[in-house]
Amino acid sequence: NNRCHTEEPVAFSQYPRPSDTPQWNSDRPELKDIRIMGYSMRTIDYRYTVWVQFNPNNFSADFEDVHAGELYVVEIDPNQDYNIYNNTLHGHLFKKLL
Amino acid sequence: RPGPATWRRLGWDWGCASACWPPAACSLWRLRGAQQAVCAPSRVSFLTGRRPDTTRLYDFYSYWRVHAGNYSTMPQYFKENGYMTMSVGKVFHPGVSSNYHDDYPYSWSIPPFHPSTEKYENDKTCRGKDGRLYANLVCPVNVTEMPGGTLPDIQTTEEAIRLLKVMKTQKQKFFLAVGYHKPHIPLRYPQEFLKLYPLENITLAPDPWVPKKLPSVAYNPWMDIRQRDDVQALNVSFPYGPLPDDFQRQIRQSYYAAVSYLDMQVGRLLNALDDVGLSSSTMVVFTADHGWSLGEHGEWAKYSNFDVATRVPLMFYVPGMTSAAASQQGRIFPYLDPFSHNLGLVPQGQSKKVVELVSLFSTLAELAGLQVPPACPKTSFHVALCTEGASIVHYFNSSEEKVETEDGCED
Predict the structure, then answer these.
(1) A49 in contact with B at a CB cutoff of 8 Å?
(2) Is there a contact between B46 and B368 (Cβ–Cβ < 8 Å)?
(3) Residues A79, B296: contact at Cβ < 8 Å?
(4) Going by C-beta distance under 8 Å and a sequence separation of 6 or more, which residues neighbour residue A18?
(5) What does the alpha-carbon distance between residue B59 and residue B74 come to, in Å, rounded to a whole number?
(6) C-alpha of B131 from chain center
(7) B305 contacts A26 by C-beta, under 8 angstroms
C-alpha cells in the first residue's frame, strides 16, 4: 500500500565484507580489509539491503557502486529465503525504498 | 516447542515461556535493531547512542574516543548525573575497542568486574566421548569439574547480587550493567540444562539451505564455528558446508540449553532485586548485542544482515509504567526453577514496533528523568554528547490497535 505507509519506523543495520565471495576473513574483516559495506533497512513489510563499495581509508560508502542487493517481502517470505531484488530493480517499490 | 523454555534465541523466534523472568509478561518488549551483528561494534554503538559509521568501529581493533571522537557513553551520562555506575561481566567488548579497561573510568564509578574463570572459556574443558578434553562448540559440562568449580556467568550473577545488596545500604541512585556471555560460543553450560531439550524434539532450521538468489557477498562462512575441535573433526567444506543434520540438531539443542542457563541467571538476579527491596524503584532493561543464525539459510553464527543475526530482544520493566509497582511485601520477580516448574507460554509483550538499539541511550535518559541527549547533527565527530537514536518512550503508552484514518490508512 504505497499511499499509507509513508512514515513508518525503519531500523538500519550494516555489515562489512572484504570481498564479493566468502573467504577466510569474511565474517570479521579488519578495517583495512573492508571493501564492501552492506546497508540494510528493515520496515515492518520489507528488508532491503544494498552491498556497496566502501573505502576504509576515508570511511566512505559509494552508493553508485552497488555490488549486490537483497529485497525480501516479510509477509510472504518471513524467513528471507527468496530475494526479489533483481526482479524489482526498475519497479515502483524499489524506487520508494531507495 | 522443545522443553518448557524461555527465549529460544536471543534474537529471532524466541517464543517466550519464561521460567525465571516474569517481566516478559509485565514489561514492554520490542524486537529488532542491532546496528551491526557482531559484539564490539554493536556494543559501542548502543552504549554511545551512535551508529557504526560514527563510531567508526566495524571490527575489534580501535577505541572510538581516539579513533572517531571522544563521545560520552550512556553509563558516563548517568555517572555525570549522580548515579553510581557499575559494570559486571561482558558489557563493553573487552580489549582494544574499550581501551582494555571497559572504558573505565569514563563510564564506570568503580573498576569493572570480570569473572575469574572467564580466562578458561576457550580452553579444552569439554569432555569428549573418548574421555579426553577438547575445545568444542557443543560443550555441556559438569560445573564441579570446571576450573575454579564454577562458570563465568554464575560468577557474574553472584557479583551483581553482591552489588545490589551494597546499593541497598548506600541509598544512592545506581546504574548496574550486567553482561552475560552465554549463549555466545563455545556453548559451555551446566549439562543438566540438556534435559529441558530432548534431542528427539529438536528440529532443523525451517530453511537449512543456502537460498539460490542470495548474493555471495551476503553469506557469512561461520569461521568461528569451524575452528572448534568438534566441528573441525567433521571436515566440512568451505564456505557453504553444510554441517551434518545430526550435528545441526546438537548445536540447536545446546544453544537452547545455553539460553535457559542464561535465563536462570537473570531469574536469580531479578529475584535478588526483590530480596533487597529495590524492584519497585528500579527500571530493568533486557537486551542483547545481536542475534545468531541457527542453520537458517545454511548459515551459523552472527556476521550477517539477516534478521536472525540483527534482531534482538528489547524489554523494559518500568515500575508504575509497564506494570503496577509492587507493594512492600509483593514480589515482582519471583524465581521459578525451570527443572521443577511446568511452565506454559507467557503472553508475548505489548508491542512489535520497529526500533533500534541506538535508541536505548535517549530512552533510558528520558525514563530516568534526565535531559535527553540532543540529536546528533549530520557530522558529529566533534560533538561529545548527542545521539543518533530517538527516545521510544512515546511508544510506551501507545495502543497497538489499528485505527483507520480519514484517508483510509491504518494508523
Answers:
(1) yes
(2) no
(3) yes
(4) A25, A26, A29, A33, A34, A35, A36
(5) 21
(6) 33
(7) no
Nearest-neighbour CA in chain A from B356: distance (Å): 6
Number of H helices, E strands in chain B: 11, 11
Shortest CA distance from B52: residue in chain A: A14
Residue contact A28–B59, C-beta within 8 A:
yes
Structural contact between residues B68 and B55, judged by C-beta atoms closer than 8 angstroms: yes
* DSSP states along B278-296: -TTS--EEEE-S---EESG
The three cell numbers of residue A27 are 565474517
> Are A21 and B217 a contacting pair at CB < 8 A?
yes
- Give dist(CA B93, CA B17) in Å, integer: 29
Cell of B188: 559451555
CB-based contact, A67 to chain B, within 8 Å: yes
Cβ distance A68 to B206 less than 8 Å, yes or no, reads no
Q: Do A12 and B59 touch (CB under 8 A)?
A: no
How many Å lie between the alpha carbon of A53 and the closest alpha carbon of chain B? 12
pLDDT tier at B275, thresholds 50, 70, 90 = very high
Which among A9, A44, A79 has CB closest to B296?
A79
- In order along its 98 residues, chain A shows pLDDT tens digits of 444 545 578 899 999 999 999 999 999 999 999 999 999 999 888 999 999 999 999 999 999 999 999 999 999 999 999 999 988 776 777 777 66
Q: Is B223 helix (H, G, I), strand (E, B) or coil?
A: helix
How far, rounded to the nearest angstrom, does the alpha carbon of residue A57 sit from its chain's CA centroid?
22
Q: Distance (Å, rounded) from C-alpha A18 to C-alpha A32?
A: 9
> Which residue on chain B is closest to A56 by alpha carbon?
B56
